[in-house]
Design brief:
mainly alpha; globular; 0% strand
Length: 256
C-alpha cells in the first residue's frame, strides 16, 4: 500500500516537486521575486484599506463592482487581484499568493504567470455582469444585488494558475481535484465568488486548449537548437582526440 502511494505521489507531483525544489535550493528567494512583490503589495493594500484615510483610495484604484462602468472595471481589475477582501482573513490571501504564485513563477516564468492570472481574474469580473444579466432564475445567473458586491482578491487567479500548472506538469488528479472542489463550492453555497472561480477555470481551460493546439501544430525542431545546455557542456568537457576528425584540434593529414 505504501509503495503504491509512493509511486502515485512520484507520478503526480515528482516533476513539479523537482522543479520547485531545485529552483529554491539554487536561487532561494531570488527564484520568486514577482511573488514576493505581490505578497508585499497585498499586505500593503490590507494595511492601507483598514485606515480611515486609506479605505477610499484603495477602493478607487482596486475595487471592482458589476455596477461600475465597464471601462472603469477593466482599469481597476489588475490591481483588484492584490486587494484582499475585507470579509476574509488576510493571511489566507497572502498564503494563496505565496504558494500558488510562487510555484507558478518557478514552473511557468514570471510573465506567463501574470499572463494567466490576469485573464482568470478578468473572466470572473466579466462573468459577474453576464450572470446578473441572466438573472437568478438561470442556473448560471446571479441576483441583481450582486452588482453591488465588491469583487477583489487573488482567489480567481490562484484557481486558474493551479489548474494551468497541473496541466503543464501532468498532475491530472490534483487538477481534477481543484475543479471538483470549485464545483462543490458552488453547489454548497451558490454565490458570486464561487461562480467566478468556475469562470476563471473555464478561461484557463480555453488557454490550455489553445496552447495544446499550437504545440501540436509546431513542427519538431532540428539542428543546433535541439542541443540542451547539459549536452553542450558534456561535449565541451570531453577530451579532444587529435586523431579523431570532428574535434577542434583535428587537422587534415599532411600530403607530400
Amino acid at each position: 500500500m505504501r509503495s503504491a502511494l509512493q509511486r502515485f505521489a512520484c507520478r503526480e507531483w515528482g516533476s513539479l516537486y523537482t522543479a520547485v525544489r531545485t529552483a529554491l535550493v539554487i536561487r532561494k528567494w531570488r527564484a520568486i521575486p514577482m511573488t514576493l512583490a505581490a505578497v508585499c503589495l497585498t499586505a500593503l493594500f490590507q494595511v492601507v484599506q483598514n485606515q480611515d484615510w486609506g479605505y477610499q483610495p484603495v477602493q478607487n484604484i482596486g475595487s471592482v463592482r458589476a455596477e461600475d462602468p465597464l471601462w472603469l472595471a477593466l482599469l481597476r481589475t489588475p490591481l483588484s487581484l492584490f486587494v484582499p477582501a475585507l470579509d476574509l482573513p488576510v493571511w489566507g490571501a497572502l498564503a494563496q499568493v505565496l504558494l500558488v504564485f510562487g510555484i507558478a513563477e518557478i514552473c511557468l516564468g514570471r510573465w506567463r504567470t501574470l499572463g494567466i492570472a490576469y485573464p482568470a481574474t478578468l473572466a470572473g469580473t466579466l462573468y459577474a455582469r453576464v450572470g446578473i444579466a441572466l438573472g437568478p432564475d438561470n442556473l448560471s445567473g446571479l441576483p441583481a444585488s450582486d452588482a453591488q458586491v465588491v469583487d477583489t482578491g487573488p482567489s480567481a487567479a490562484v484557481v486558474g494558475l493551479a489548474v494551468y500548472v497541473c496541466w503543464r506538469y501532468r498532475a491530472w488528479w490534483t487538477g481534477s481535484l481543484v475543479v471538483v472542489a470549485m464545483v462543490v463550492e458552488v453547489l454548497v453555497k451558490s454565490n458570486l465568488a464561487g461562480k467566478e472561480h468556475l469562470a476563471a477555470i473555464a478561461a484557463v481551460l480555453v488557454l490550455v486548449a489553445v496552447t495544446a493546439w499550437r504545440e501540436r501544430r509546431q513542427p519538431p525542431s532540428s539542428g543546433p537548437s535541439e542541443l540542451s545546455e547539459p549536452s553542450e557542456l558534456s561535449e565541451l568537457s570531453e577530451p579532444e582526440d587529435p586523431e579523431r576528425p570532428g574535434t577542434r584540434s583535428w587537422k587534415p593529414p599532411i600530403t607530400s
